[in-house]
Amino acid sequence: MTEIAIPRLKLEHIYKSFPGVQAVSDVSLNVYGHQILALVGENGAGKSTLMNIVNGVVPLDSGKIYLDGQLVSIPSPRRALELGITMIHQELALIPELTVGQNIFLGREPRRWGIGVDWKRLYAQAQRELDRLGIEVSAQATIADLSIAQRQLVEIAKALSYNARLIALDEPTSSLTSRETDTLFRLVRSLREEGVALIYISHRLEEVFELADRIAVMRDGHLVAVGNASEFTPAEVVRLMVGRELAEFFPKVPAKRGEPVLKAVNLKAGREVRGVSLELHRGEIVGLAGLVGSGRTNVARLLFGADRLEGGEIWFEGRQVHLRSPQDAIRLGIGLVPEDRKAQGLFAGQSVRYNAGAGLIQRLSRWGFIRFQAVNRIVRELVERLRVRTPHLNQKVRNLSGGNQQKVIIARWLGLNPRVLILDEPTRGVDVGAKAEIHALMSELAAQGMAILMISSELPEILGVSDRILVMREGRIVAELSREEATQDRIMQAATGQL
Amino acid sequence: MLNGNHSSSFISFLRRTSTYLILLVILVWFALLSPEFLTVGNLLTIALQTSLVALVAIGMTLTIITGGIDLSVGSVAALSGALAAGLATRGGLGTYPGLLIGLLTGLGMGFLNGAMIVWGRIPPFVATLASMAIARGLTLVYTQGRPIAGLDKTFTFWGGQGALGIPVPVWVLIVVAFLAYFLLKHTPLGLHIYAVGGGEETTRLAGVNVGLVKFSVYLISGLCAALSGLILTARLWSAQPNIGVGLELDAIAAAVLGGTSLAGGVGGIPGTLAGAFIIGVLSNGLNLLEMPSYNQQVVKGMVFILAVMLDYFIKQRQAKPKGNPAD
Amino acid sequence: MKRSIIYLLLAFVLVLAACTPAAQTATQAPQQGGEITLGLVISTLNNPFFVTLRDGAQKAADAAGVKLIVVDAQDDSAKMTAGIEDLINKKVSALLINPTDSDAVVPAIQKANEAGIPVFTVDRGSNGGTVVSHIASDNVAGGKMAAEFLCKAIGGKGNVVELQGIAGTSAARDRGQGFNEYMSASCKDAKIVAQQTADFNRDKGLKVFENILQAQPEIAGVFAHNDEMILGAIQAAEAAGRTGIVFVGFDAIDDAVQAVKDGKLAATVAQQPALMGQMAVETAVKYLKGEKVDASIPVPLNLVTKDTVK
Fold first, then answer.
1. CATH placement of domain B34-316
2. Is B39 on the interface with C (CB under 8 A)?
3. Distance from B284 to chain C by nearest Cα, in Å?
4. What is the pLDDT of residue A352?
5. How far apart are CA A273 and CA A268, in angstroms?
6. Contact between C1 and B313 using a beta-carbon 8 Å cutoff
7. Which residues of B119-130 are buried (b: 16+ CB within 10 A; e: fewer)?
8. Given this model, what pLDDT does residue C29 score?
9. A194 close to A114: Cβ distance less than 8 angstroms
10. What digits encode the pLDDT tens for the residues A366-379?
11. What's the pLDDT at C23?
C-alpha cells in the first residue's frame, strides 16, 4: 500500500434516490486490488444500493464509475460480469435444483455442435475451478444437497469463474459456523493475495476488524468515514454507524430469578438431540450456545411442539405436558421466534398489522368474526412499545429492515402474553442499533417475569445478554455457565469439545 | 442408523424410479387380470390413445418446469384441428397447407400466452385461462359449433397406421419426445428452463434472457397442443369443436405423476411419458376389466392421489437428513 | 415415515384390488365359447335419457342371458374412439354404438369392421363404415302420432301452425314428414296456415309465434318439432291473451311434462330410451344367433297427454 496504485474501482459523486428516499448521496470511494475493504453501516444506510449500482442491478442518478482508471457504465448485471465485477448476495444466488457445475456456468454454457451443451467440458472446468480454490465439493452435486456453507463457497467459485477482479460479499457469514467461517476467510485472504479487490459487507464488527485492510462507514446514504482499519476502534465504528454513542452494547437489567416455568428432562429426537435436560425460570434469560448443527434449533423446536419428541419429558409449571403441535405450546404460553424469519416467521407479503396481529386473531374473534378494532388497538400498542419503525400499519413487512421485521415477530408473540419466549438467532442480519433495542426489550420482558431462551452464534451477544449459559455439542448440553464464570474461551472450548 | 446407507440408497432408487414402478405395477396387475391386455394389438392401442395426452403433456412439462402452466392446450388443440380441417376442406387449400396453418395456430396461441406472461406480466394461470376461453370461442365461431368432416386420405393418414405396424401418432410422439428430451438435457435453453423454474431472479442475474426462455416454452406448448389437435382430427376423420375439453388436466396429471414439481425447477420428459402412460393404461385396462365408467373415475382419482403421495413421501424421506436447515 | 410408505403401498394395492371382482367374471366370460358379450359405447351418461337407455339395454341383456359392457364416452369423440378400440381388443361379440358425432365415429367403426365385429348404431347414426342396423326412434311415426292427436283435439278442422326445427336435421325432416303426411291424408278439413322454423329454440319459438299470432287471428292448433319451441309458443300466446289453442310438442322434456300436467300443453311425443336400449340389445342378439335383421329398426314413440301423464 505504499506505492500509489490506480484503484480497481473508483466511485465519484454517486447519487441515487428512490421515491421518497435519497438512498445514496455524494459517495466517492476507492477500492484497490490486493485489499479487503469493509463496508459497514446500519440497514438502510445505503450499502446495498451502492453495491447494486456497481453491479448494474439499479441505474445511478449521477456520478462516475471508473474501473482500473477507465470510465465505465454498468447498465446490467450481465455487463458487470463482463467487466469482472461480481456480487455474492446475502440470499444466495444459486438454483437449488441444478448442479454445482450448472450453476457456475449458467448463462455461458460451453457448447457442442453449436446447439448442445458440452456437459463434459462444463463439469471438467467447474471441477477445476473448485479444486483450485480448495473447495471440496463435486461439480456434479446438486445444490439442494449441499450445506449453506458449501453453497457459499460454490457461490464464490462461481464469482471467480467470471475472472472477477472485484468481488463484493454481502453478509457472507450470517449462516456459517465458525469453522466454515474460517474456511471462507482463508479463501477471501487468498483472493486478496491474488490481487482481487474485495468489498466485505458485514454487521459483525469482529469479522470486520479481523479481515479488513480498510473500513468505509456509511450512514443515511452518505459515506461518513473511510480509512485504514488500524485507524478505527470498534466503538468508533459503531458510533459512526449509528451517529450517536451507544451507552451499552447489551443493556441488561438485572432481574430476580423466579420459580421454574419450563423443564425439559432428557429430551431425545433423532441424531440431533440425544438427551437434553434444562430448566427455565421466570425472570431469567438463558443463552443456548453451541456450533451450528449442535442441535440448538432442534431443542427449541421440541420445546415449541414443532417436532415430534422421541423420548424425554417436558414439564410446564409443575405439570407434565405433551406438545403435539405448536398450537399446544401456544395455548400454554410458549412462543418461538424462529431463526429463518423469512421462511418461518413472517408473512412477507402481508402488512405489519397482519403479521403482528396474526396470533391475536383466534383469541379476539367472537362467533367466528374477527374483532378488527380490538386487533388494531393491540397491534398499535405493541408497535409503539417495540418501536417498530414503519410508516404505517399497512406497510408490507418485506419492505421493513431486518431488525424491524424481527420486532414485528416479537410483537406478535407479546400480543399473546407468553410465559416462555424462545428466540432463535434473534439478531441475525439485524443492524447494531436495532440489535441493542432487541436486547433491551428481552431484558425488559425478563424483568416482567418472562422466561427467555435465546439461541445465538454470536458469543458477545450470548455473554452480554444471558443470566445463564448452556452450551450444546452433538445433541447434548455439555456445559452450564453462570454469567460471571462465562468467557468466550470457555464457551468455545465446551462447544468444540476441547474441555 | 446402522443401516442408514443401505436404506437411503434403496430410497433414492425408489425416488428415481417411483413413477416407472407404479406404471410397472399397474401393467403387471392388468396383465394378470385380463387376458386381452398384454397383446401387441392392445399395447399399440394404448400407445395410440396415450400419444394425444403425452404430446400435450410434453409441452405442459416445459411450462411447469419454468414455474408456469398452460391451461389453454385443450382449446388450442381444438382450434388448430378445426382451422386445419376447415381450410383443408371447405377452404380448398388442401391437406398440407391446412396442417401447416394448424401448427402455426398453435404457435400463435403460444405467442399470445408468452406475450401476456412476459410482456403483460400476467400470471401464467390467469393468462392461459383467458386464452383457453379465447381459443375455444374462436373454435366455436369458426365451426359454428358443428363438426367439419370430409378430410381426405393425406390428412387422415396422420391418425392412422404407420410404418412397422406402429400408428403414425405414436411415431410423432416418439420424435417429439426425443426432441424435447434433447432440448431439456442437452441444450442451453433446456438448462435455462430448469434455471428459471428454480430461481427466476438468479437466472436473470446470470445474464440469461428469462423472457425469451418463457416465450419458448409457451410456443413449444402451443405447438405440442396443435400437433395433438391435428392428430386427433386425423384420427376422428373430422374436426370436432368440443375436443380437448379437460385435456389440460390430463396433461398436468401426467406431468405431476411423472415427478414434475408444480413449484417449478424439477421434472423431465421420461417421467412425463410414464405419467401419461399410467393414465392411458388405466383407461384401457379398466375398460378391459369392465369396470363401470362411474367407478372408473373414482379409481383413477385414487390412483392419482396415491401415486403422488407415494412420490411425495419417498422424496420427503430422501430429503430428510438435509431437511432441518441450520441446526 | 417408512411405515407411511408401506401404508400407501397397501392402499395402492387395495385400490387395484377393487377392480378384481369384475375381472373374474371378465376372464371367464369369453372363454366359454358361444357366450355372447355385447359392448355398448354410449355418448354420455351425464344425461338421464342415455342413462335410461343403458338401463333398458342392461335389462334386456340380463333377460337374454348375455353380458353387456358399457363404456361412457363423456361426450368426447376421442374417448368414444378409445372406448371402441378397447372393446375391439376385448373381442366383444358385437358393438352397440351411440355416437357422439356421426362423422367422428366412422374410423372407429371401420376398425371394428376390420376386426370382424358387427356394429349397431343407436339413436344417432354413422356417416360411414358398415353398420348392421340402426336402432332409433321412429320420428316419422312420432310426427304422425302428433298429427293424429292434434286433428282429433281441434275437431278435425281449423287453422294449424307448424314450428319446424333446424332445416336439414333428420329430426326436423322426419317429424315434419310424418306430421304433414297425416294432415294432408287424414285431416283434410284442417288448414296449415303457417310453417316456420324456430331452430329447436325456446326463444325463437316465442318470437316466431308472436309474429304468427299477429298474422293469424284464428289458430286452432300448433305442432312444434320439439318441446323448447312449443313452450316458447305457449308463452307468446299467454302474453297475447290468446286462448283455446291446442299445443302439441315433441321429446317430453321435464318442463313439457309439467306443462302437460298444468294443462297448458295438450300433448308431447315421448321417445322411449329404455325401449331403444332394449331393442338394440335384442336386435344384436338376434343377429348373432344367425337371424336376419332389418337395416333400420324404428323404436315406437309414446304420446304424453293429461290422461297418460303420471
1. 1.10.3470
2. yes
3. 6
4. 80
5. 5
6. yes
7. eeebebeebbbb
8. 41
9. no
10. 676 766 777 788 88
11. 42
CB-nearest to B265 from A78, A95, A107 is: A95
Which chain A residue has its CA at the smallest distance from B198's CA? A95
Residues in chain C, pLDDT under 70:
1-10, 12-34, 310
Contact C293, C96 (CB under 8 A): no
Of A160, A61, A161, whose CA–CA distance to A108 is shortest? A161
Please give the Cα distance from A167 to A160 (Å, whole number).
8
Q: Identify the chains in contact with C, defined as 3+ C-beta pairs within 8 A.
A: B
**Domains detected in chain C:** 34-131+273-299 (3.40.50.2300), 139-270 (3.40.50.2300)
Q: What is the DSSP string of B106-153?
A: HHHHHHHHHIIIIIS---HHHHHHHHHHHHHHHHHHHHTTS-B----H
Three cell numbers, residue A350: 402481508
Question: What pLDDT does residue A291 have?
Answer: 76
Domains and their CATH numbers in chain A: 9-242 (3.40.50.300), 260-496 (3.40.50.300)
pLDDT greater than 70 at residue A295: yes
Write the CB contacts of B125 (distance below 8 Å, at least 6 apart in sequence).
Answer: B69, B71
Q: In chain B, which residues have their Cβ closer than 8 Å to the Cβ of A106?
A: 191-192, 195, 202-203, 206, 208
Cell for B281?
A: 393404461
For the cut 80, the answer to whether the pLDDT of residue A176 exceeds it is no
Q: Could you tell me the pLDDT band of residue A388, with boundaries at 50, 70 and 90?
A: confident
The continuous run of DSSP H or E covering C43 comes out as none
Q: What CA–CA distance (Å, rounded) separates B66 from B261?
A: 10
Per-residue CA distances from B100 to B97, B223, B255, C49, C72 (Å)? 5, 11, 27, 41, 34
pLDDT in tens, A81-104: 888 888 887 666 788 889 999 998
User: SS3 of A281, please?
Assistant: strand
| B6 backbone dihedrals φ, ψ, rounded to 5° | -60, -55
Residues A324/A325/A330/A336 CA torsion (nearest 10 deg) = 120
In the predicted structure, residue A492 carries a pLDDT above the cut 80? no
Global pTM exceeds 0.80: no
Q: Report angle CA A45, A47, A52 to the nearest 5 degrees.
A: 135
Q: Average of pLDDT values for A402-413?
A: 81
The answer to whether residue A454 scores a pLDDT higher than 80 is yes
Beta-carbon contacts of residue A52 (< 8 Å; ≥ 6 apart)? A58
Q: How far is CA A377 from CA A360, A380, A393, B130, in A?
A: 11, 5, 11, 43
B313 touches chain C (CB under 8 A): yes
- Contact list in B for residue C82 (CB cut-off 8 A) is 49, 283-284
- Selecting from B52, B289, B314 the residue whose C-beta is nearest the C-beta of C78 gives B52
Burial string for A46-57 (b: 16+ CB within 10 Å, else e) reads bbbbbbbbbbbb
Residue B191 and residue B199 in contact, taking contact as beta carbons nearer than 8 Å: no
In angstroms, rounded to a whole number, what is the distance separating the alpha carbons of residues A208 and A240?
A: 15
Phi, psi at B181, each rounded to 5°: -60, -45
pLDDT at A12 over 50: yes
Task: Confirm or reject contact between B97 and chain A (CB < 8 A).
Answer: no
What integer best gives the mean pLDDT of chain C?
86
B74 in contact with A at a CB cutoff of 8 Å? no
R_g over Cα of chain B? 21
- State whether C19 and B42 contact (CB < 8 Å): no
% of residues, chain B, pLDDT over 90: 44
Condensed to tens digits (0 to 9), the pLDDT of residues B81-112 reads 999 999 988 877 888 888 999 999 999 999 99
Give pLDDT tens digits for A139-173: 999 888 887 778 878 888 887 787 788 988 887 77
